[in-house]
From TrEMBL:
PANTHER family: F-BOX AND WD REPEAT DOMAIN CONTAINING 7 (PTHR19848:SF8), WD40 REPEAT PROTEIN (PTHR19848). InterPro entries: WD40/YVTN_repeat-like_dom_sf, WD40_repeat_dom_sf, WD40_rpt. It holds the Pfam family WD40. The lineage of its organism: Bacteria, Pseudomonadati, Planctomycetota, Planctomycetia, Pirellulales. This is WD domain, G-beta repeat. Keywords: Repeat, WD repeat. SUPFAM superfamilies: WD40 repeat-like. The keyword Repeat applies. WD repeats lie at residues 113-145, 241-279, 325-356.
Length: 377
């Protein structure tokens, strides 16, 4: 176990671990998420399947969904709840396979399973699906080992509250941001980790471009900082929103970043040409989450309880809202694409799987530029 200050998070070797024998709770996998008086079955609405996380503690009435991450192999969906517990679900059946942590059951005495003791804000799998990273308000960054039934591989503590963690495409580096101006880089080559800082102490999101050459970071200032994650060089920064950026993603195999913010706008930005391509307000509420559907379409959601499907327009580099999904009765906190299906989770304590309309997706018009800049290996 590491006892670290925020500034010491840079350059941690996560492979040293805290003991491969520390394992999370493994359930039989016979429990579906949604419960009814006539048995344990999913609930269906007009255009979605609705699930609820069963509480682990009898004192908890319902579990708000705070974060999700998709296993790249397509087998698992990791879901975090406001009970401070991570549930690993079978992505096809939505049955619970593993439960990580004691959550609100944690006490100062007796045997405890490793896990979080406050809200979990972020989850991320590496590209191989072998490791799951979690972090949140408790300042813990935990790495779970799929090869050992999602037992705890590494624990890093004494960080500030963390809002977002992401693995580099190669899996050899982790970026983490939160209530600090520093972008924490974690990897096996500790002496080679650069120190990255922003002029903002409330950072909410970070994301590697698919080629690994760029790490984007954003937060309260409404600006995005683009770094070289290998050298630490600030490539450029650009103000693109009038309020706090809550989430963004690079479109698949593209330089184009799409972002959402609390001003209710979505932005399409070319990180290579350093050009704002389009900006559009799609809601009077706040936007919290975005996910790419395919190379030309993304979904955005937030406090208006709706999910907006947005299509990139090639002719004028614009954006059009092509569909809106209604069903949640609370803010949508997180979105994910699971085996071609859109999944959402929110403050109404539900997970929903949505049937997507037929989407025609052409090739990317702005492909990744081939340069001499190397990414994170």
């Amino acid at each position: 176990m590491f006892g670290l200050t925020a500034t010491h998070l840079t350059g941690i070797d996560w492979m040293s671990g805290v003991g491969a024998n520390s394992v999370g709770r493994h359930d039989s996998g016979n429990t579906l998420l949604a419960q009814s008086p006539h048995g344990i079955t999913p609930m269906n609405s007009a255009n979605s399947q609705v699930y609820q996380l069963p509480p682990v503690d009898s004192s908890v009435r319902q579990v708000v969904v705070t974060a999700m991450a998709v296993d790249p192999r397509g087998e698992f969906l990791a879901v975090a709840g406001d009970d401070h517990i991570i549930r690993i679900l079978n992505a096809q059946t939505m049955q619970i396979a593993h439960v990580l942590g004691d959550g609100v059951n944690r006490s100062d005495s007796g045997e405890q399973r490793p896990g979080h003791f406050d809200w979990i804000r972020t989850l991320a799998f590496d590209a191989s699906g072998s490791r799951l990273c979690s972090a949140g308000n408790d300042g813990l960054l935990l790495i779970w080992d799929r090869r050992r039934d999602f037992g705890l591989m590494q624990k890093i503590d004494s960080a500030p509250a963390l809002a977002c963690v992401r693995f580099s495409p190669s899996g050899k580096q982790i970026a983490a941001v939160g209530f600090d101006s520093q972008v924490f880089l974690i990897g096996s080559a500790s002496s080679q980790m650069p120190k990255l800082t922003c002029d903002c102490v409330d950072l909410r999101c970070c994301r590697y471009r698919d080629d690994g050459s760029t790490l984007a970071v954003g937060g309260r200032s409404g600006a995005v900082h683009f770094f070289n994650p290998t050298t630490g060089e600030l490539q450029h920064e650009q103000g693109i929103h009038e309020s706090r950026i809550r989430d963004f993603t690079f479109m698949p195999n593209s330089n184009v970043l799409v972002s959402v913010a609390e001003d209710g706008t979505v932005v399409r930005y070319d990180s290579e040409q350093r050009q704002m391509l389009a900006k559009r307000r799609i809601t009077s509420g706040r936007l919290f989450a975005v996910v790419a559907i395919d190379s030309q379409t993304f979904a955005a959601a937030g406090s208006d309880d709706e999910i907006h499907l947005v299509k990139l327009v090639d002719e004028d580099f614009g954006m059009n809202v092509v569909s809106t999904f209604s069903g949640h009765v609370g803010s949508v906190a997180t979105l994910a694409m699971v085996n071609g299906t859109l999944v959402s989770g929110g403050f109404d304590a539900t997970i929903r799987r949505w049937s997507l309309p037929e989407l025609s997706s052409g090739p990317n018009k702005i492909a990744l530029k081939k340069t001499g800049v190397s990414g994170v290996d």
